[in-house]
TrEMBL record, chain A:
Lineage: Eukaryota, Viridiplantae, Streptophyta, Embryophyta, Tracheophyta
CDD domains in the record: IPMI_Swivel
Biological process per Gene Ontology, one example term: glucosinolate biosynthetic process
Compartments where located: Plastid, Chloroplast stroma
Matches recorded under SUPFAM superfamilies: LeuD/IlvD-like
Name of the protein this chain belongs to: 3-isopropylmalate dehydratase
Catalytic class of the enzyme: lyase
UniProt keyword Lyase, yes or no: yes
Keyword Lyase assigned: yes
Subunit architecture: Heterodimer of the large LEUC/IIL1 subunit and the small LEUD (SSU1, SSU2 or SSU3) subunits.
UniProtKB/TrEMBL annotation, chain B:
Domain named Aconitase/3-isopropylmalate dehydratase large subunit alpha/beta/alpha: residues: 185-444, 448-567
Alphabetized Pfam families for the sequence: Aconitase
The name this protein goes by in its record: Aconitase/3-isopropylmalate dehydratase large subunit alpha/beta/alpha domain-containing protein
Organism: Fraxinus pennsylvanica
SUPFAM superfamilies named among the record's database cross-references: Aconitase iron-sulfur domain (SSF53732)
Keywords: 4Fe-4S, Iron, Iron-sulfur, Lyase, Metal-binding
Molecular-function annotations in GO: 3-isopropylmalate dehydratase activity; 4 iron, 4 sulfur cluster binding; metal ion binding
GO BP annotations, alphabetical order: oxoacid metabolic process
UniProt-listed InterPro entries: Acnase/IPM_dHydase_lsu_aba_1/3 (IPR015931), Acoase/IPM_deHydtase_lsu_aba (IPR001030), Aconitase_4Fe-4S_dom (IPR036008), IPM_dehydratase_rel_enz (IPR050067), IPMI_cat (IPR033941)
Length: 227, 577
């Protein structure tokens, strides 16, 4: 911590962030989502890489997927795709850079960065599904509303990761970022600004996500018969 | 009239046994007064009734200046969460929408009196705490004590104190002990779904369990179409058709179908808003586990049960197994004492609480509501309280079951149920105390309702006409019938509907979720323009009621009605006092 603080001269915003590496980070892993096993520790690292889209606090499910589109049934493949094309459509017009470009059905942003209480409001599973269907692999927020977090885990649509500080003040829409989820520690690397941020461990949800959602987890643990 | 007033935090600190003894004692006195004969036996073990609590509490003083606005659910001003005095008025056009969840039943004054006599009066009389020992002694000499049979899980015979939420989850997971944070597999008593999430939940159920799979229990799945009903949107209509086919195929016992969209009254099975329908149809029972694919499923906590919202995938899992892995939440306890001023409604109470703890103040937590004020509330008011638990991020809300609960359930369910209560030694994450007699009306700035009777009372008192379009949406068929049939006290026999008509309101709409959430564009009272709306609903994020630049102010029916008369957000005391 002391070492990090000593090298944090370029980092003026907040002491809440632990600066892991003050040097610009250039390591780019090509696949959007990859899982690699490092030879030395035999630990699994899941990596996401892409452009980030930055939003503020209290992004509720109406902003993620407006109630108008809830007639779409996520378990129907065609309608799943359609849901994706409406992801984050409810953001106010103050968000001048839109999450999905006009005429597109997918987003070019694969990582969403938010503030407090991301996904609050309705229990609609359409919310994480819409994000997942639009091409989002992970959300990084300061905190989550309970049901959104749970739905993300249960569906396996997006990884709901928690940051240790307000990354929504640190990153800008369009920054190139990489997320590395390790067994012992996870981090977000912002290649555009050259900064790294520690992410909180995924905790209890880890085993469920790792198994591939609640059904896979239940089969693995013998709750329901395996197929 | 004899009535008791206890310090409710002490009451809820009692063990189940002591509490039950107290209940029996009250029933006994009630009967004795009615019949003039003292003959009932009482349990002898009342020793821990007198147990004093030294629990640390946090006193929260209520705000004191005029009508308040808080941006508790404010997402347009994204990051703010401050209280501000109402600046006199809010300019612009104001719509008033009552997506009512309840109407005061005709019997409500009766219930209040009955219940008032038992544990739940707001009438000051004498302290049970100081007098009960004497009274008990006297009665014990009349008759020998009698023990009724109780299962261990309800008698508080566990080693460590549990909150009522912990106790319900322990029982449902067949454990005797658990701690907050633990993940447990819980047996589900009722799974509710509706037209928005039902088709998806069943889609997942079929995908995971097979095309020919059957639900775990056809009598425990309750399906209530209510969201997008009176619309020409084809996909919305199709979703109700999907539900109908599934219910036929699975032989689902409780499906509240609607086929004739032109006239809701032609559909005797159709109810309306699921949370109210669940209660009115007797699916809410103390001590049980109720899950639903709707975040406001927490409303059912009013019945002293564990109720929370889940997503489609979790619901698909429950459909196949009847179980779900749930994390045990720690409990925040809200002690609300004091007589409610007559210009306040339950909506004001929960808005006050959310204002205090913020929109994420209860994330992952249970919210337990106790105190003399809560005890004096009707079931409908308790539902209003629990309905908005999720707006503070809460997992569930609970009100301990009492005579008000039992009375409500009398003609609604024949199934046995076992209420549970928090132990005296239960550990609460935090306790908040409110003196409700000092509370003021609130509105939540941009970020259900109650009680048409309340709105009618304001219109009646003012004798004026509304100045802005005023929409009324009854929650269920029953509420609709009540609006057209129950006389409003003090009106000379007029019904709510007559008063609304005289005041110039829109004709009450077909019961459904309506514009509480902005569904298809032809949804009744949907905000298709960036307007300003005062609503008795429960959520006001940007775009919630349609247009994403629209502004929604949440308020009690009194405040909403007063505002519709002036065209500005208005303190109802202007009309009521």
């Amino acid at each position: 911590m002391a070492a990090a603080a000593a090298t944090a001269t370029t980092f003026s915003e907040s002491s809440a962030f632990k600066l892991l590496n003050p040097q610009p980070h250039h390591r780019i892993t090509s696949p959007l989502r990859s899982t690699t096993t490092t030879p030395d520790a035999a630990s699994t690292v899941t990596t996401f890489h892409g452009l980030c889209y930055v939003v503020c606090d209290n992004i509720d499910t109406d902003q993620i997927i407006h109630a108008e589109y809830l007639t779409l049934v996520p378990s129907n493949p065609d309608e799943y795709e359609k849901l994706g094309s409406y992801a984050l459509i409810g953001l106010p017009s103050s968000y001048e850079t839109r999450f999905i470009d006009p005429g597109e059905t997918k987003s070019k942003y694969s990582i969403v960065i938010g503030g407090d209480n991301f996904g609050c409001g309705s229990s609609r599973e359409h919310a994480p599904v819409a994000l997942g269907a639009s091409g989002v692999a992970a959300v990084v927020a300061e905190s989550y509303a309970r049901i959104f977090f749970r739905n993300s885990v249960a569906t396996g649509e997006v990884y709901p990761l928690e940051s240790e500080g307000r990354l929504c003040n640190e990153c800008k829409t369009g920054d190139v970022v990489t997320i590395e989820i390790g067994e012992s520690d996870s981090k977000l690397i912002n290649h555009t600004s050259g900064k790294e941020y520690k992410l909180k461990p995924i905790g209890d949800a880890g085993p469920v996500i790792e198994a591939g959602g609640i059904f896979a987890y239940a089969r693995k643990t013998g709750m329901i018969p395996s197929r | 009239m004899v009535s008791f007033k206890e310090e409710s935090n002490k009451l809820s600190n009692f063990s189940d046994f002591a509490r039950k003894a107290l209940e029996e004692f009250k029933t006994f006195v009630q009967e004795a007064i009615n019949t003039d004969v003292f003959t009932l036996a009482l349990p002898s073990d009342t020793s821990n009734v007198a147990e004093e609590s030294s629990r640390h509490t946090t006193l929260i003083s209520t705000s004191s200046s005029g009508l308040l606005i808080f941006s508790g659910l404010d997402s347009i001003n994204h990051c703010s969460n401050t209280f501000a005095p109402l600046p006199g008025s809010v300019p612009g056009r104001i719509q008033f929408i009552m997506a009512s969840s309840t109407i005061i039943p005709s019997s409500s004054p009766l219930i209040k009196k009955d219940v008032g006599f038992s544990a739940f009066s707001s009438q000051p009389s004498f302290y049970i705490q100081s007098s009960k020992k004497r009274v008990f002694k006297k009665i014990a000499s009349v008759m020998a004590p009698q023990q009724s049979e109780r299962k261990p899980s309800t008698t508080g015979s566990v080693k460590t104190g549990l909150t009522m939420t912990e106790k319900m989850l322990a029982r449902a997971s067949e454990k005797t002990q658990l701690v907050p944070g633990e993940n447990v597999w819980v047996n589900v008593d009722i799974l509710m779904t509706h037209d928005v999430c039902g088709p998806g939940a069943f889609g997942i159920f079929k995908k995971e369990f097979g095309e020919n799979a059957k639900v775990w229990d056809r009598e425990k799945v309750v399906i209530i179409p209510d969201h997008y009903i009176f619309t020409t949107d084809e996909r919305a209509n199709r979703n109700v058709d999907i539900l109908r086919n599934i219910c036929t195929e699975q032989n689902i016992k409780y499906f509240y179908d609607i086929k004739d969209l032109g006239n809701f009254k032609a559909n005797p099975d159709y109810k309306g808003v699921c949370h109210v329908a669940l209660a009115q149809e007797g699916h809410c029972r103390p001590g049980e586990i109720l899950l639903g694919t709707d975040s406001h499923t927490c409303t059912a906590g009013a019945f002293g049960q564990f109720a929370t919202g889940i997503g489609n995938t979790d619901a698909g899992f429950v459909l196949g197994t009847g179980k779900l892995l749930l994390k045990v939440p720690p409990t925040l306890r809200f002690v609300m004492d004091g007589e409610m001023p007559e210009y306040l409604l339950a909506k004001d109470l929960i808005l006050q609480i959310i204002g205090e703890i913020s929109v994420a103040g209860a994330t992952y937590k249970a919210m337990e509501f106790v105190g003399t004020t809560v005890e004096s509330l009707t079931m409908e008011e308790r539902m209003t309280l629990c309905n908005m638990v999720v707006e503070a991020g809460g997992k569930n809300g609970v009100v301990p079951a009492d005579n008000t609960t039992y009375k409500y359930l009398e003609d609604k369910t024949t199934l046995p149920y076992e209420p549970v209560y928090s132990d005296g030694q239960a550990r609460f994450l935090q306790e908040y105390k409110f003196d409700i007699s000092k509370l003021e009306p609130l509105v939540a700035k941009v970020s259900d309702a109650k009680d048409f009777m309340a709105a009618a009372k304001v219109f009646l008192a003012s004798g004026k006409k509304v100045k802005v379009p005023t929409f009324l949406v009854p929650a269920t068929q029953k509420v609709w019938i009540d609006i057209y049939s129950l006389p409003v006290p003090g009106s000379g026999g007029k019904t709510c509907s007559q008063i609304f008509e005289e005041a110039g309101c829109d004709t009450p709409a077909s019961p459904s979720c309506g514009a509480c959430l902005g569904g298809p564009r032809d949804t009744y009272a949907r905000m298709n323009e960036p307007q300003v709306c005062v609503s008795t609903t429960n959520r006001n994020f940007p775009g919630r009621m349609g247009h994403k630049e629209g502004q929604i102010y949440l308020a009690s029916p009194y405040t909403a009605a007063a505002s519709s008369l002036t065209g500005f957000v208005t303190d109802p005391r202007e009309f009521l006092l």
